[in-house]
Amino acid sequence: MSTVERVLVTGGCGFIGANLVRRIRDARGWSVRVVDDLRTGRESYVPGELAEVTIGDVADPAVLEPALEGVDAVVHLASQTGVLPSVEDPARDFEGSITATFRVLDACRRRGIARFVFASSGASVGDVTPPIHENVVPRPVSPYGAGKLAGEAYVQGFAGSFGMQTAALRFSNVYGPYSLHKDNAIPNFIRRCLRGERLEIYGDGSQTRDFIHVQDLCDGIIGAVAADDIGGEVFQLGTSVETSVVELARLIQEVTGAEVDIDYEERRAGEVYKSRVDISKAQRLLDFQPAIELREGLALTAEWYRKTLVETG
């Protein structure tokens, strides 16, 4: 396999992308090109000294083809995001997820770009008894999860038919800096605690998640880009630690110093109840070793939010 020198990150101005661009520079020194349509990303997250940034829809050939010029690998983060938006508008989710993934993957095939890493999700597996591992039969319970599962299938199919060095990474619940636009539990709880507002939990709070700091996740992504002989493989990226939403709320109150009340609302459709992943395959084949414990990661994230909210008002 050829040496990686330049990586295209689709969706690179978003939460994970903004962190990945920095981690690639610090850990590997590869040059980075970014394509993002700024639906959720922010151009200010990726200044010009970090990456060459193109604003546009990666599913548009006029945007995609020039972006792939001279690239050795692609990390495909761009996607229509979120379980709830996919339930509200499944057609939009299909176009932003499955269609975009196929177009980027097929363009890589035609150009001979063999290394392709796809950002999947635990939502592709659905509501199964933890720990979740790669041999569990997927049963997605939302259009978002179905779209991610379809992407995994294409990644495997292109590896099998065309010999591409592809990998699908099932991200657990990711948190960290550059997530100001996100509205899932950790960003929401941190913002509300810093503002002294009541927290809202959907369900009774006993539902669990496997929370991974974005820096650890990015190390897993980089490991997949650099790895050889993993064509078509699927990997779980998380911490193998299960935390309830009530415990998460308590930890965030602790690291922010906020004493706020909690309101409990009706459980939302399409969301899994319990989630914890088995990362032994990623540990074995990608040398994946998450290092940031949840409380430490929450404290770091809360500090970034505290500074950023002051700067942005």
Short synopsis of the structure:
By secondary structure, the protein is α/β, with parallel strands linked by helices. The chain has helices at residues 15-27, 61-68, 83-88, 90-111, 143-162, 185-194, 214-226, 245-256, 280-286, 294-312; strands at 6-10, 31-36, 52-55, 73-76, 115-121, 165-171, 173-175, 199-202, 208-209, 211-213, 233-237, 243-244, 262-265.
Main beta sheet? 7 strands, parallel
Mean pLDDT: 95
Question: What is the structural class?
Answer: alpha/beta
Q: Beta fraction of the residues?
A: 15-25%
Helix percentage range: 40-55%
By DSSP (H or I, 4+ residues per run), the number of helices equals: 10
- As residue ranges, the low-confidence spans are none
Shape: globular
- From N to C, what is the helix and strand string? EHEEHEHHEHEEHEEEHEEHEHH
CATH architecture of one domain: 3-Layer(aba) Sandwich
CATH topology of one domain: Rossmann fold
Assembly category: single chain
CATH class of one domain: Alpha Beta
What does this structure look like?
It is a single chain. With 313 residues, this protein is of the alpha/beta class. It has a domain at 6-175 and 211-240: Rossmann fold. Helix content is 42%, strand content 18%. The protein is built from ten helices and 13 strands. It has helices at 15-27, 61-68, 83-88, 90-111, 143-162, 185-194, 214-226, 245-256, 280-286, 294-312, and strands spanning 6-10, 31-36, 52-55, 73-76, 115-121, 165-171, 173-175, 199-202, 208-209, 211-213, 233-237, 243-244, 262-265. A seven-stranded parallel sheet has the order 3-2-1-4-5-6-11, with helices on both faces. A two-stranded parallel sheet has the order 7-10. A two-stranded parallel sheet has the order 8-13. Strand 5 (115-121), helix 5 (143-162) and strand 6 (165-171) form a beta-alpha-beta unit. Helix 8 packs across helix 10 (294-312). The N and C termini lie far apart (48 Å). The model has no long low-confidence stretch (mean pLDDT 95).
